[in-house]
Amino acid sequence: MTISPAVLLAGLFSAKDRDYADRLDELAARVEVLGGRVVGRFVQRRGVSHGGVRLMGRPLSRRFVVGPGKVREIAAACVDRDVDGVVFANELDAYRRRRLYEALGTPVLAAADLAGDLPLAHLLRTAEGEAAQRKRRSG
């Protein structure tokens, strides 16, 4: 019997984004189609304060997409729930992927990574290998 990879879903959403829960439901369905199981969800909403409307579509943190407090919450859940990876609803560049991998201690994927038909377990192994290579190259 093969055990499905356990993942957490996470994302930063604008306070104006009323369908964020639907987007997470769609992401959860995609995870399940690829052989994974969602064991938790973490949402950070960006309100109108702290920069106003012009910043609503931008990441809350240059390093992590979400704020450092939310990263700590997700990291604790990774340990508590023995997860195999975290899937973000947001786009992630290589820098953020590396920072999140280091902070969370588990492979990190973006929703766009789930677009193909590769099994989730394969995607997580690939993400972990890429993170390790980036870490070796950066010192």
Task: Describe the structure in your own words.
- The structure is a single chain.
- This protein has 139 residues and is an alpha/beta fold.
- The chain has a single domain, classed as Rossmann fold (3-Layer(aba) Sandwich), CATH 3.40.50.
- 41% of the residues lie in helices and 19% in strands.
- It contains 4 helices and 4 strands; from the N terminus they run βαβαβαβα.
- The chain has helices at residues 20-33, 68-80, 94-104, 120-138, and strands at 6-14, 37-46, 85-88, 108-110.
- Strands 2-1-3-4 form a 4-stranded parallel sheet, sandwiched between helices.
- The N and C termini lie far apart (39 Å).
Kindly list the characteristics that best describe this protein.
single chain, 139 residues, alpha/beta, Rossmann fold, 4 strands, globular
Sequence-ordered SSE layout with sheet pairings:
Layout: E1 6-14, H1 20-33, E2 37-46, H2 68-80, E3 85-88, H3 94-104, E4 108-110, H4 120-138
